């Protein structure tokens, strides 16, 4: 694997016969779509990507992450938020992520995320074949994962 840099405008990564050229995203929606279309590479082959859902803090402040991902095998879950570099880390991104983390810890939010996960599992039941879990224990497993 080699990297070719041509000035400060273009970076290229060459791996065997494949060439990868760095290019900026047009908008956050394009970045979100890249995450959605490649979630198994990002979060693991046995993961499920869950769509956007309004979650609320205990004070009732709502926030909508770009999605969630759950890996049943590794017993991990993720809040997904795709942001472009043009946004300020401290005045935009950090408050947004903080609100999402706080909201995700509320019991109503955990229930909503669990319901999204159950729907995703119903749509891709073949992913459960590699995971040693009885289908009737999924609710318990989701509760365990969302408590972390």
For the structure shown, list the relevant keywords.
alpha+beta; 148 residues; flat; 8 strands
Commentary on this structure:
This protein is α+β, with helices and mostly antiparallel strands. It has one domain. Helix content is 39%, strand content 22%. The chain has helices spanning 28-37, 39-43, 89-104, 107-123, 138-146; strands at residues 2-6, 10-15, 18-21, 47-50, 55-56, 62-63, 67-71, 76-80. A three-stranded antiparallel β-sheet has the order 1-2-3, with no helix packed on it. Helix 4 (107-123) crosses helix 5. The radius of gyration is 18 Å and the shape is flat. The model has no long low-confidence stretch (mean pLDDT 89).
Element string (H = helix, E = strand): EEEHHEEEEEHHH
Q: How helix-rich are the residues, as a percent range? A: 25-40%
Strand content: 15-25%
Largest sheet: 3 strands, antiparallel
Shape label: flat
Low-pLDDT stretches:
none
**Gyration radius, to the nearest Å?**
18 Å
Distance between the termini: 37 Å
As for the number of domains, it is 1
**How many DSSP H or I helices?**
5
In total, how many beta strands?
Answer: 8
Lateral strand order in the biggest sheet: 1-2-3
* Average residue pLDDT: 89
Structural class of the secondary structure composition? alpha+beta
């Amino acid at each position: 694997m080699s990297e070719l840099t041509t000035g400060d405008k273009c970076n290229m990564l060459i791996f065997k016969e494949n060439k990868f050229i760095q290019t900026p995203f047009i908008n956050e929606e394009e970045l979100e779509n890249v995450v959605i279309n490649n979630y198994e590479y990002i979060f693991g082959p046995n993961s499920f990507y869950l769509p956007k859902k309004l979650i609320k803090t205990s004070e009732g402040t709502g926030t909508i992450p770009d999605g969630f991902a759950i890996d049943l095998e590794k017993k991990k879950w993720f809040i997904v938020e795709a942001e472009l570099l043009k946004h300020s880390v401290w005045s935009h991104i950090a408050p947004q992520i903080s609100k999402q983390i706080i909201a995700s810890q509320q019991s109503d939010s955990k229930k909503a995320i669990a319901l999204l996960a159950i729907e995703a599992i119903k749509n891709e039941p073949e992913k459960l074949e590699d995971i040693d879990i009885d289908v009737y224990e999924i609710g318990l497993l989701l509760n365990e994962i969302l408590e972390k």
